[in-house]
């Protein structure tokens, strides 16, 4: 069987393909960095502990830890390595003050314990890391600044956290052992010797201008320039990279509401990205009549008028993995093939023009630590009803009825209270006790009645559903939006059986001037077929400006006279929009909106659908303010248990 598989993989019926495959397999590992798959440690397995360590050492709570892919390095390589690969990709870690990017998997050491310790060290390094103030054009000066910052931050870590010194020493020794030894021109060799001396923790001489520059002498540094054909030094993974905060980029136009088809692939890592102008892609005339499909020369974005290829999904995934940086452009041609992945993309310039209208809300600027008034406009409307109403198959009706029965057990029960001053009947036990007390001491209690009362919760619940494009994805053959609609119907019928006051809202956004807020059910509106039809009519919208939607739902909830108020958010927990509302800005504004609602006496709880963002959810809603439903198809059955926990 293995022979047949090898024969099939060789593609002998395509000679060019077979020769290329054989050549690639023969040379691709020449002088390659050793990889130890048997000792590999995945970021997902340590991400939770990394978040605890980072914040415990003093890192900002709003920083998110994300996986990143290998990056292209321009360092000098041996001739055999150049023969094997046009470019060299190396594992990297970088911190820009907003996001900590770490390799999706570490297998650089033969010991799994060392690979895990490397994750811990990189997280600790990010706590003290400071980006360079200046960016130098000369590559040699860039290397000097990068190495000095790395060595300085490493010393700051062991000075501030002495318990990490042993880990640092072990990682230094292992890195020095694994570091490749290559012949190089004098300047590059001197830099490499300095790196090895630092890893060996040996004192470095300062007998040359380059060594004096590395020691901090500015005059020597300013006089140095890179020689011809200079290559940057090979990156040292355990020193990481310090990147400046993401700079604002150009404005984007609103995307068409028409969604593409195809499946969505879950994101495993974050790709570097930049926005590109694509005005030529909108031209109606053709660049060429012949597509020259045999000339596969360019892998990067070009601003040209060309046909949008609807590639096979596997080919599109392979192209995304091979690309070091992904260019994001706006055009109206919608291919069916879609992939889902995170982008390390700079936010856009924030437009600070104030809005006017009926529902205008501020947003929190985390850099200035202030609420900026008039930043988001709510467009409130009654949700459109599905023309055919709510259509459920037998299995869905069975699931909804089962959920409704679970909610009915939470209905306030009728209690009989004894020892009352007045009531509907006499309490015989208290009468006997009163007569005995009167005979014994001449005094008795007048609480001689029993009374039956309803144990009312006096609770108002506002359900806020995230109707953004994230609900377009599918789980087990069913769209998430269909699963969510079923869960909302089950929740509405269950709370109606509990006699709790309920309102259901859905939201999505298209920049700050269009935050769509659809009303599926008002508090005073009875549950019925029209509410069912509105829920059935919900469709995936645009983006997720959670802060503004939360503030508006909180405003409506605050007008209720109920003693207890619950704001229940059903979302993937990732705020984002087409403008500057993404990354740290969106996270901090959402967190501020949650705090504002809680100051009004409202309980805020998030049910996160199909989300692996536990650390960021904890930052947004607190350790007890969210629940993860890892399988969206089980959302409806999970809601009664969540609700029971919230109202007890």
TrEMBL record:
Gene3D superfamilies: von Willebrand factor, type A domain. Pfam families: VWA (PF00092). Residues 241-280, 313-333 are annotated as: Disordered. Residues 460-646 form the VWFA domain. Signal peptide: none annotated. InterPro entries: NorD/CobT, VWF_A, vWFA_dom_sf. Residues 268-280, 315-330 have a biased composition (Basic and acidic residues). This is Nitric oxide reductase NorD protein.
